[in-house]
């Protein structure tokens, strides 16, 4: 069912060379923005739109609305989404306006602000959607915005790492972490409602009105997520990928126990990303620890339980654990950087690279050919790139918390980690548009 816009490829081949290089940092030039002038930065209609509160939805609401589709329902949904996207963009524009000059003068942040400003203007000026012809035009707008915003996450991450690298302000790290979590959570929210409407419109145009109660999908909402199925899919995807990095190395055996046939509604791309990050880190840690110890790779135990309201998935590995003093940093998007940083889980990531190397990664990301993707928001699922940028686990937590869930890692140093994921079983939790924890 995943079908349309573009995502990123996983090619970052020069990163290994860049990791070992110590290039002298020198200024990098960027084109001057034609949109974000000093006068426009603060004089914008966004301040008026930001006075309106966002109206979050739940997975159940998305699914119920998508049943028994009619033209009237699609038009109603389109008007909600075009206004809601403008409101949510306006709030983020104001957040960026309130950030210190040293943050928003970063070229990557300027590019994000420019894209958000243009998208906000297009949404607020679109006008009332009155018929299916208007809805078709709106779907063209959705597809165009999703494509053009494909590099937002790399821009934000590289921008944050540049700012932290050069900043002398001790409070920049926590401030940027809060900023990043809010930006990413809001970004997910806009893509969820936009992609859901696009998917429902496509289904309706194919003659599918979702009247059948046995449908597995309503738009992008997968109604029957079962741990027994999604875990096997994630295990295969992760082990196939890691075999390429560790040729000839035995993979850990996976032991799965518990209430594996519990069903819950979710977005398949979200759960695939979360589980993929958890499993990939456990597998790589298990392999590397076994190599250091000169022992066989230990099995990974996956336990599933459920209550009336929640589903719990615990992944227990024997991969050596994480030093307690380093554990908090795995959740940060603004880790302090140095050329000798202790790097968690796997190899070196962009945290330890000179700034010029970060620019090189950024250019590789943006110059990689696009392809027709098969998952929602696929650029964040390009795990190779996200790992190089050092945000895989932190981003997995944002995805877990978006639908009112939770993701924690408990470490037993020199033994292993327990990764615990909590998911709402009923799908009644509203989108979490703000994250307060630093």
From TrEMBL:
Q: Name one Pfam family in it.
A: BCDHK_Adom3
| EC id | 2.7.11.-
- GO CC terms: mitochondrial matrix
Please verify whether the record's keywords include Cytoplasm.
no
* One of the record's GO molecular function terms: pyruvate dehydrogenase (acetyl-transferring) kinase activity
Give the Branched-chain alpha-ketoacid dehydrogenase kinase/Pyruvate dehydrogenase kinase N-terminal domain ranges: 56-221
* Entries under InterPro entries matching the protein: AK/P_DHK_N_sf, BCDHK/PDK_N, BCKD/PDK, HATPase_C_sf, HATPase_dom
**SUPFAM superfamilies from the UniProt entry:** alpha-ketoacid dehydrogenase kinase, N-terminal domain, ATPase domain of HSP90 chaperone/DNA topoisomerase II/histidine kinase
Q: Which UniProt keywords apply?
A: ATP-binding, Kinase, Mitochondrion, Nucleotide-binding, Pyruvate, Transferase
Can you give the residue ranges of the Histidine kinase/HSP90-like ATPase domain? 271-418
GO BP, sorted A to Z: regulation of glucose metabolic process
EC class name: transferase
Where does it localize? Answer: Mitochondrion matrix
* Top-level taxon of the source organism: Eukaryota
Primary residence:
mitochondrion
Q: Which family does it belong to?
A: Belongs to the PDK/BCKDK protein kinase family.
PANTHER family named among the record's database cross-references = [PYRUVATE DEHYDROGENASE (ACETYL-TRANSFERRING)] KINASE 2, MITOCHONDRIAL, PYRUVATE DEHYDROGENASE KINASE
Give the protein's recorded name: Protein-serine/threonine kinase
Annotated source species: Wickerhamiella sorbophila
